[in-house]
Design a protein that fits this description.
This is ABC-2 family transporter protein. By secondary structure, this protein is mostly helical. It has 13 helices and no strands. It has one domain.
């Protein structure tokens, strides 16, 4: 498995796909900061302190940004019809799924690191650090990001599961987006219309937990996020392996 992971890392490191995608996001971030810096109101009312406070309200965004790592690791195999060729060389299917997932996690964390450095770095350079009463500290921000990582990884595990049961990359993208954009709201609607017991389901979903970090970041919420992330990851990667072992690959 290690050799296959190394091969996948090398292959994707030397392709333009990931770096072009990352470059576009970085360029958009820096470009928006430059436009904001050019405006009189933006240059006087915005700084790193404010940006850090805003960023903790956007912790669900990395879920969608990182989806591209599933696209070039698993979904591309469907597009190019190369999955069967890889498996025909004797690579165990469980190894294939685990390797693809690990590669996705690696590139997702690398993407997150590059984007955060670009966002916070360009903001600090263009607007200064600043200070706002009640603003979070940088150490608290890092703690929130660290607590979010297990949930971000869990979203990749769910994406891997969807990619296994659905062979069409376009449909996988729509299902993934629908699940994380609307899924929690549908559960909340069931809570209001059907039964209050659905609130327990809502509270353990990934997006509500990420959203709660902006208003309530405690040791209990950190523990809950870590445990939830680990359970989601184990369950959905386990299901992915079980289903993929029985799936006919064309």
């Amino acid at each position: 498995m290690i050799n296959y992971i190394k091969a996948e890392l090398y292959r994707n490191f030397n392709r333009k796909y990931f770096w072009l995608y990352t470059g576009i996001i970085v360029a958009a971030i820096v470009g928006l900061n430059l436009l904001l810096r050019a405006s009189a109101s933006g240059s006087n009312s915005y700084n790193l302190s404010i940006a850090m406070g805003l960023s903790v309200r956007m912790l669900t965004v990395p879920i969608f940004l990182a989806f591209v790592t599933l696209d070039f690791s698993i979904l591309e195999e469907y597009k190019n019809l190369t999955m069967k060729n890889v498996l025909s060389f004797g690579l165990p299917r469980s190894t294939y799924i685990l390797s693809k997932f690990i590669v996705s996690v690696f590139f997702s964390l690398l993407l997150a690191l590059i984007v955060m450095v670009s966002f916070y770095g360009s903001t600090a350079l263009l607007f200064g650090i600043g200070h706002k009463a009640g603003a979070i500290t940088f150490s608290t921000l890092l703690s929130i990001i660290a607590a979010s990582i297990p949930l971000w990884i869990a979203s990749l595990a769910i994406g891997t599961f969807i990619s296994v049961i659905i062979s069409n990359p376009t449909i996988v993208s729509f299902v993934f987006a629908f699940l994380f954009l609307v899924g929690a709201q549908l559960v909340k609607l069931l809570y209001m219309l059907v039964s209050h017991n659905f609130i327990h389901v809502y509270n353990i979903l990934i997006t509500p937990q990420l959203g709660n970090f902006a208003v309530k970041f405690t040791s209990a919420s950190i523990e809950k996020a870590v445990i939830s992330g680990i359970i989601y990851t184990i369950v959905f990667i386990g299901l992915s392996i079980i289903i993929f072992n029985k799936k006919e690959i064309k």
